[in-house]
Amino acid sequence: EEPVLLAELKPGRPQRYDWKSSCETWSVAFSPDGAWFAWSQGHCVVKLIPWPLGEAELCKTSERKSRAGKAETWSRGAAKEKTLECGQIVWGLAFSAWPAAEDGDTDPACAVGLPCLVLATGLNDGQIKVWEVQTGHLLFSLLGHQDVVRDLSFAPNGSPILVSASRDKTLRVWDLSRDGRQVQVLSGHVQWVYCCSISPDCSMLCSAAGEKSALLWSMRSYTLIRRLEGHQSSVVSCDFSPDSALLVTASYDACVIMWDPYTGEQLRTLRHVPLHSTLDSSSEIHTSSLRSVCFSPEGLYLATVADDRLLRIWALEFRSPVAFAPMTNGLCCMYFPHGGFIATGTRDGHVQFWTAPRVLSSLKHLCRKALRTFLTTYQVLALPIPRKLKEFLTYRTF
């Protein structure tokens, strides 16, 4: 089933062209519970939108939404959409929900007894501003980077550890529970760092820069584990599977490589070949340089956005896309945390929402996912079980 465009949001301000990136959506993000959506509009603004609960409501909202692209109809109940004035062009976005504090020792910025949902924004001048979502208040301004903060990633376990990736060729680790103190600087890249991703088990960090290799770091010791070498051009995006057993990297060489992060082995290469039938015969030929890759929440699909103006959806067991849709100059993509649709950001500052395959995971996959959440590849290989079962559990077969 091909992706269907459900809705499209457009900036509410006139375009500014003093910076090339000022009218481009380089980052979109859903909160971990799916209740909020953040959108880097350009113009130094981030829009925070309370999210509909289900696809049915999204479709209804899409029907009600005016062609002018106003987003007011996306509000729900008492929660109101907010505009965060960041003062600089926004490149990276990341949500995190802090656990509720015990014994009444609650962060003053959060409602008593409730988790604190925060949004980190990476800015053009190297600052990182962290906002409390419910109130829209600024909590921290983190200083240290010397150039654009291109991407941000929170530790998925709810801890207030934030990793930032910058054009100053470094990654930095921040602890928001210690007033945003910088706890580590990771150096090793020789080009701009485009992307960073923390594994769901919080043991590893992958970073992608304008280099042919991606770097894998330990989140425990903040040391380099290995270089992942295999691409023929700059690696620009990376993402871990929900069980941390797989890592995917996307490159300007028009390929996605699927890795075993524990061994460094290349498991599969997905090549973005031109799909001429999807393009108007009179249009120019577009390259397939990749911009973004992300895993689906259940871990059975990938979504990619490339410069050939196509959104592709891949199933892990196949080497060709199972669905694709023509889109407008895509720059980033992200799955809704509960599945069912994908958000993409575009060069003209818009956000588009697409249907995605809904799948009922097999019992085999659910068991594999549960085991791989706490077993490394080496631990699986050491189990006294048949070889074919080991191959399945390590994603050598599907």
Automatic annotation (TrEMBL):
Record-level GO BP terms: intracellular signal transduction; protein polyubiquitination
CDD domains referenced in this protein's UniProt entry, alphabetically: SOCS_WSB2_SWIP2 (cd03745), WD40 (cd00200)
WD repeat residues: 119-141, 142-177, 186-227, 228-269, 283-317
Identification of the protein by name: WSB2 protein
InterPro entries, per database record: SOCS_box, SOCS_box-like_dom_sf, WD40/YVTN_repeat-like_dom_sf, WD40_PAC1, WD40_repeat_CS, WD40_repeat_dom_sf, WD40_rpt, WSB_SOCS-box_domain
TM stretches of this protein: none
PROSITE patterns associated with the record: SOCS (PS50225), WD_REPEATS_1 (PS00678), WD_REPEATS_2 (PS50082), WD_REPEATS_REGION (PS50294)
Record domain SOCS box: where: 362-398
Keywords: Repeat, Ubl conjugation pathway, WD repeat
UniProt pathway annotation: Protein modification; protein ubiquitination
Lineage: Eukaryota, Metazoa, Chordata, Craniata, Vertebrata
